Amino acid sequence: MATRRAPTPARTALVSFPGVRAFDVSVITEVWGVDRTDRGVPPFDLRRIAADPAPIPLRGGLSLTPDRTLSWLNRADLIVVPGLDDHLTPAPAPVLEALRRAHTRSTPIAALCGGAFTLAQAGLLDGRRAVTHWNLTDLLRTHHPRVTVVPDALFLHDDNIWTSAGTAAGIDLCLHLVRTTHGAEAAAAIARSMVTAPFRTGTQAQFIEHPTPHTDRDADTLAAVRAYALTHLAEPHTVAGLAARAGMSPRSFARHFQASTGTTPLRWLITQRVAAAQKLLERTDLPLPEVAGRTGFGSEITMRQHFATHLATSPRDYRLAFQHTLDQPEVDMARPHP
Known about the structure:
This protein has 14 helices and eleven strands. The protein is of the alpha/beta class. The strands form three sheets. It has a seven-stranded mixed β-sheet, with helices on both faces. The chain is globular and about 60 Å long.
């Protein structure tokens, strides 16, 4: 009997230099630096990259010891840049040049929170959309006017470059990158280990400080409607029907829903249906038309169209890439996090 070859670990580079934020370093390490192969997560090879091997001081009396220099970025499958304690900290010129070369090679690059300032220093965000913490948007616009700063997303993707908003959104982006590369089950296993939500879409609004008395008082109602929709994905839903369940007019419901989630009810519903279909494709052998029916797409054609829009792939190709080879119990319905 042939012995199955162990999968090649995905190579992730954590780029570091004096001034990077300890929390973001910890998040990156927790996602890609912990061996969870016993829980079905693929192996990762996380390397801490810096211009030289000298220990890097972090706030709070911590330090980070690099284990590779910048030349290792040539081998990386993904590069992740932490945020900064002082968001105007200049990155070393060799780091900026290495990031530019990596982008030229089409290596995906992700920045957490204020890490967007580092990518902007490298010129990688010029003419592109980017997000950072809501309290830093004006600062990013002022110092890097060629960047199109989006104020209310959790994370964004533009030309193989990812940026994310504040603290928790960095976790969201890291899990999203695992999910899109290694599948929803791998991301969910990591999220369970971290005791965090496995799935929040990048279209949800940041928690920006402004008066929201009306949306606050309707928050429980809207959450209940979302929970109902998630447990009845196979059913057809309309804005009018969901609004009636919330006891609101369709116009009022749509307005409050967008204020709460940062997206429209129908876009949110499609995103949840795609996530549910991903899970069924990974964990079951259900025929594609049945997956489409169980997740509310109605037809395989409609599901295929939404997969192309959201994931740039087809349901069939997604299954080939991410379906588990180990025996797993069949599930009746995947339930993304509301």
